[in-house]
């Protein structure tokens, strides 16, 4: 990273102060909304946003217009908002959002977006569908290779739409009420979502409860990105002991795997800084990983519109592995949201690499959070002049 000039150092110092305040605010928001966590949960989303904030702070010219768009909030703060407004579906807008106190314009634009995207499809409000896609994982296909599990309202299309608003290709006065500010808020969150493997890939089962790939004339039933599978893992210190229930497979990746990843980040920080006097804060971890370049993260050769599909294709092998490292039991076909889906148990099995599911998922999640932060910053630099 190039040496900073005096002006750049001052800007960086101010930005880092803002990030520290954002992390404190995010801790409050995490406590308020821990019951309704989604992809990587608040901690994972805040870390991706904070890494991106630090990446932008290290660049002399990037970020000024971006932060003006979101009224001085940080990416670490706004990355939480698209999940938090899901509570409005149940409680209405009377539920306050701590991060938006003192930012009435942002709250007004976000409320207009929520109202415009409340029509129900497949049993859910539209704005909830924007967070995922369910590409079949059995045969390792790419996003563009088929149609099952994809839709014009999925995460790939929504990231593309937000990019088009920020580049001016799509007017802010669109039916979805996605303004430039809302587009930044959604991208801060959805770029995190698309790096969670089970927000992109799903297992499909046939009438006999066996994993299967979509073929012409064959009816299959999806696991809803692991939401319908109960995950059973062996105890961390006794892989030969009976596996115990850890809740939904999808929820495990949203929360437990993210927690393991942040623990690994802290451990690696201690190894790299043995004289550090105290446990690293989340902001210190974000600053550290903003300086450490992740492997195979750079999509700069692609036009911004193509980043969404490239990110989906990049994470799909991990979604496949997240299922392949499990054995499925008691798969039944049930009716949910007015359609038939598969549900059952997913039990940890011995892996060829010798890693437990817990350790493997934590490592994968660390890599994806790291990569997501760098990509979020790079994408926004490209599309917000």
Describe this structure in words.
This protein is an alpha/beta fold. It has a single domain, classed as Orthogonal Bundle (P1 Nuclease). 49% of the residues lie in helices and 11% in strands. The protein has helices at residues 6-33, 41-57, 64-69, 75-78, 81-84, 86-91, 104-116, 126-129, 155-167, 180-193, 249-272, 282-291, 307-324, 357-383, and strands at 120-121, 124-125, 135-136, 201-202, 204-205, 221-222, 229-233, 244-248, 326-336, 339-348. The strands form four sheets. The protein has a four-stranded mixed sheet with strand order 8-7-10-9. It has a two-stranded antiparallel ribbon with strand order 1-2. Strands 3-4 form a two-stranded parallel ribbon. α2 (41-57) crosses α10 (180-193). The two termini are 22 Å apart. The model is unreliable at 1-38 (pLDDT under 50).
